[in-house]
Amino acid sequence: MNTIGFIGLGVMGGPMAANLLRKGYAVTVYNRTPGRTEELEKLGADVAASIPETVRSADVVISMISNDQAIEQIYYGENGVLAALKPGTTVIDSSTISPALARRLANDVAAQFCDFMDAPVTGSKPAAIEGTLLFMVGGSKTTVAAHRELLLAMGKEVIHVGDSGSGAVAKVAHNTIVGINAAGLIEGMAIAAKGGLDASSFLRIVQSGGAASKQADLKGNKIIDHDFSVQFSLDLMLKDLKLSAALTDGLGVSTPMLEAAKSLFQIGQASGYGELDLAALARVYEEWIGMRIGNVAAAPSSSAEEELAAASSAAEYISEKERRKKARLSLEIPVMLSIYQWLQEGSFSGQSLPGYIRDVSEDGLQISSASPLEKDMFVIVHLPPEAGLPPMTARIIRIEKENGMFKYGCLLTALSLYQRIQLKEYIDSKLPD
Q1: Domain 333-430 sits in which CATH superfamily?
Q2: Listed residue (364, 376, 373) closest to 401, CA to CA
Q3: pTM of the predicted model as reported, rounded to 2 decimal places
Q4: Catalytic pick from 125, 171, 219, 239?
Q5: CATH fold of 170-326, please?
Q6: Active site (annotated) includes residue 42
Q7: 323 pLDDT exceeds 80?
């Protein structure tokens, strides 16, 4: 039976190493962050003080690391895996990384007369604990076949998807669907909640109908209970969606749903929920709808502090929304307006005018200018550089004149969700206390 060197003992790696130990494998473990080896020691693991110590004694090296940057450090650092490999070792990386990096690792491991498999997994923390992970594996058929039994000690199925890098492609494509499904589930539950439906009853409908999904099973009750303990973090979900965006850009694949999901998880990260479970994206929607999706009283898995903070956040959101409704707060943020008009000859004429943002709404802006413009005209609004926002396209839908100034109600177009939240934060920073 092979001797295993296991590097990376986080949410997934720790349970995977534990299952190997329970199946009788000799396992030496290493983690960059101390304090994650105690339970594994009780199961019989040897704890290494360094990567070279882990690698030199192993027939098979398994890594489960968070991202490309960490893999670069673990493998290519001065005391990294590649520097310590002995010929004949098999290297299995189960991290979710870019296909390009997986292929580079395969080439560099082969140069050391060793075998490599990129073998990312699906199933998240519960499956890692239960030993029911699915491995999607890139590498030679011979190498995969020789290590199938080892992988099945940590999972229920091994699918060989192609040459080196193919496992990484499969995982990125798979997690694109996961992110889109999760966002769709949360959005649907937000609609139901705002419409006055009981969240648990609606979730039962989802699970029994055409909207049924693994995400509904895994995340539905977590959303309702505000249990955002980590099975798979929001940060990691966003990281995987970014990997997918980079891959699809290179492949030339149009991915509008990927871009929408990525923007939503960027908002979740910017809102401070990155280290929570990806189900915490629900908090973003709760801020938007001004209420909890689930029953406030039904939150046994969350701490009292978390519930108080969530209730406070919702109350602040509602209070701010009502404050805007009751009193149109006075703003005077200077902007430049680019005005473009169509000429019959088939070209555009344009000019730039000074203006001000006077008010904001969920869908648009009220801007003012001394210059008369026309309804349905499109303008480009350039905010001050400090806003960190690109020029925004807006269509004039309403015109008022007051004290020699024209006030224009403008509907924003082609502005991503992430940019909308940036705009809101910038406007809020300019509101009077």
Answers
A1: predicted glycosyltransferase like domains (2.40.10.220)
A2: 373
A3: 0.69
A4: 171
A5: N-(1-d-carboxylethyl)-l-norvaline Dehydrogenase; domain 2 (1.10.1040)
A6: no
A7: no
